[in-house]
Design a protein that fits this description.
The protein has 272 residues and is of the alpha/beta class. The chain has 9 helices and 8 strands.
């Protein structure tokens, strides 16, 4: 069973631990396990990030709040310094980036900003946490945006990504596939992330609607926002290629975790 709830980031990241009974699987955990294996994931310290990387993360968090949670943005960020407020002050460059990206989304993908509250059976959930069990293992995920059309049985999972590459440089081959972008999705394991979210959503639909939950079509979409050229690009992940590979990655990483949680077994060797 998987349920949906709205919780702060601090509470979300506090869920789970490294002991066998405390493990709660997330997309970030699966990415790390796929890269280095479950045993090394448990024993090696978390990587330290440079100040530049941390600043990039902060810009991404600010964009998420500005686009998906405007009220939360007002609580945490400001474009002007106020000595009476304890807020993160964004510089002019970041302000221009956030405002320009929002205008781009309003123009090109207004459905991403729309708040659906049940009219015609359509609901939208922003920054929503899914938590429960998959295959007997505790699992979680924090999804940027989900739109559920109960009438037509269609679900769209959106993930907003800030990137530092000009979108203008993304080229298509003769078959009209963005191979450069596809390679980047593979290398950063966004395919794994979205495949994991899709599994959580499927289980949530089954928990909410019973067997009817299996009838929903689930689309996985990435909305890229480029810090280099202030442009956006919506990308739908193909079922028979990108998500297929993402599911293969999930199976490998999740399989290692399940073997430990359910059977108490962990492989300290790798096979090459």
């Amino acid at each position: 069973m998987v349920i949906a709830k709205k919780i702060p980031d601090s509470d979300y990241f506090a869920i789970g631990g490294t002991k066998r009974d405390d493990i709660v699987v997330s997309a970030s955990m699966l990415r790390a396990i796929y890269n280095i294996g479950f045993y090394r994931y448990l024993i090696e310290p978390e990587p330290e990030y440079s100040e530049e990387a941390l600043e990039a993360f902060e810009v991404g968090k600010a964009l998420h709040a500005y686009i998906l949670e405007p009220k939360e943005f007002e609580k945490r960020y400001s474009f002007e310094k106020n000595p009476f407020e304890d807020k993160k002050v964004l510089d002019r460059e970041d302000e221009d980036f956030l405002k320009t990206i929002k205008k781009q989304i309003e123009l090109l993908h207004p459905e991403f900003l729309e708040s659906y509250k049940g009219g015609n059976g359509v609901y939208s959930l922003n920054e929503i946490t899914l938590i429960g069990e998959l295959d007997g293992v505790k699992a979680k995920g924090k999804l940027d945006r989900v739109v559920i059309d109960t009438k037509n049985k269609i679900v769209s999972i959106y993930d907003l990504k800030t990137i530092y590459k000009p979108l203008a440089k993304i080229k298509r081959d003769k078959n009209h596939k963005a191979w450069d972008l596809r390679r980047s999705i593979d290398e950063t394991h966004l395919d794994l992330q979205m495949a994991w979210y899709k599994r959580l959503i499927r289980e949530y639909l089954i928990s909410s609607y019973g067997d009817v939950g299996m009838q929903f079509e689930i689309a996985c979409k990435l909305l890229f926002a480029s810090k280099e050229d202030n442009k956006v690009l919506m990308v739908r992940l193909s079922e028979d290629d990108v998500l297929l590979k993402g599911n293969e990655k999930v199976d490998i990483a999740f399989g290692e975790v399940k073997n430990f949680v359910l059977n108490g077994q962990i492989d300290k060797e790798i096979v090459v």
